Amino acid sequence: MNLTLREFGLRPEDSDNRDETTYEYLLREVGSTTEESLLELHRYLFPGDPGSGLVGIPSVPVPWKAGDFRLFISHTTAHKARASALSAILEPWGVDGFVAHVDIEPTAEWKDVIESALHSCDAMCALLTPDFPTSAWCDQECGVAIARSVVIVPVDLGKKPYGFVNDFQALPVPKGRQRIEVADDVFMALARNHRTRTSMPPRVVRRLEVREHSEAVPRLLGLLQDLPTDAWTDPMIDGLDRAINANMALSKANLADGTSARDAASELLQRVGPELLVQYGDDEIPF
pLDDT at residue 73 above 80? Predict the structure, then answer.
C-alpha cells in the first residue's frame, strides 16, 4: 500500500496510531497530495472506471459541507422547492443535498459548478416529475452519474424511471406523503444500497443524535447493530453516546421484540465502545 502511494508522489510513513483504521490512515495520507496526483492514482487503481479517462472537468469549488455524504439532487426548475425541502431535511442527518438553483452563487459560472458537483457527488437523487424528460439538463445530469457508476435514487413524482435510470428501483410517493417521509425513504435507500451503505453509518448515528422521531429509531438501530465492530470510529461511538443521553425518542421507541430502544443502544455502545480500565487506588478510600 505504501509502495503504491510513493509511486504517485506521496511520502507515507507507517502509522503508529493503533486506534487509527486503515481507511483513516489512507485518508490522512492522500489528503496531503495534489489533485493531479490523486487523478493519476485513481486511473492506476481503477483503469476500467469511465471517469478515469475524463478530461477537461472544471475544477470549480462546490459548496459541499465537509464530512457529509454528497448527494446531487436532479430536478427541473419548476420543482426546485421540492428539491430544496428535501435537502433541508437531509442536512441535519449528515447528507448534503446539492440543489443547483439554490447552492450556486449568482456570479459563479453555474454550468461549471454543476459539472463539478456531478463529478464529486457520492450519489444522485432524481426527482422524476412529468416534465423531467423534457429537460435536457436533467437527462445529461443522469448521464454523467451513470457514466461515473454513481448510485441513483429515483423518486417517482408522476414519472416512472426510463432509459438507463430504469435500472434503479424507484421510490413511490403516494398522494399525501409528507416531505419528511420522502426524505426518510431516500436516506434509507442510500443506507441499504450495497454501493453506498459503507459511507452511511456516521450519518445513521447523526440521525439518532439529532433527536430523530421514534418511528425511525428501530430501523436506524438495526442498521447500526449489523455493523462489524471494526467499522465503528471514535466519532461514531461518541455520537451514539450523546444520542443515548439526549434523544428522548430512544426512551419512547421499542424494537420488534419489545426491547427498549435505549436499552438496545446502550448494549450496542458497550459492545463497540472502548473497554473501561478499572483503576485500583488506596484501600482506605470510602466505598
Answer: yes
